[in-house]
User: Which sequence fits this backbone?
């Protein structure tokens, strides 16, 4: 049981670290001229997806902790990943566009603050 929890925790951390490392890599590769091509609609869509992903990760974190076998843990992780992709698709995004916005926001302090404001608004709605 403890092993399943450990494996599950490592998997969730891996997903988060993957997103962070990808965003850092993209931030280094994203030329400054691309930073201005994000409009408010795209930022609000990102904020909506961000909040949905937070909820998905929280939901599945507890389910992963309760998994009784490694196979059950893998199935839960597959569902989690599927839900994340579904949330992205609903807002017309994919992993690449999501990571791109993260990278651009990380490189632009003003844009990041604006995006955090949109995320806070979205959290209040839900």
Assistant:
């Amino acid at each position: 049981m403890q092993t399943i929890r450990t494996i599950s925790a490592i998997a969730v951390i891996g997903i988060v670290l993957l997103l962070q490392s990808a965003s850092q890599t993209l931030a280094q590769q994203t030329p400054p001229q691309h930073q201005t091509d994000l409009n408010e609609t795209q930022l609000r869509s990102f904020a909506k997806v961000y909040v949905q992903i937070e909820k998905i990760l929280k939901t599945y974190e507890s389910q992963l902790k309760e998994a009784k076998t490694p196979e059950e843990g893998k199935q839960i992780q597959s569902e989690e990943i599927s839900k994340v992709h579904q949330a992205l698709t609903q807002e017309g995004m994919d992993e690449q566009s999501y990571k791109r916005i993260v990278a651009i926001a990380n490189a632009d302090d003003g844009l990041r603050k604006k995006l955090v404001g949109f995320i806070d608004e979205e959290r209040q709605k839900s």
Observations:
- Residues 1-14, 29-35 have pLDDT under 50 and may be disordered.
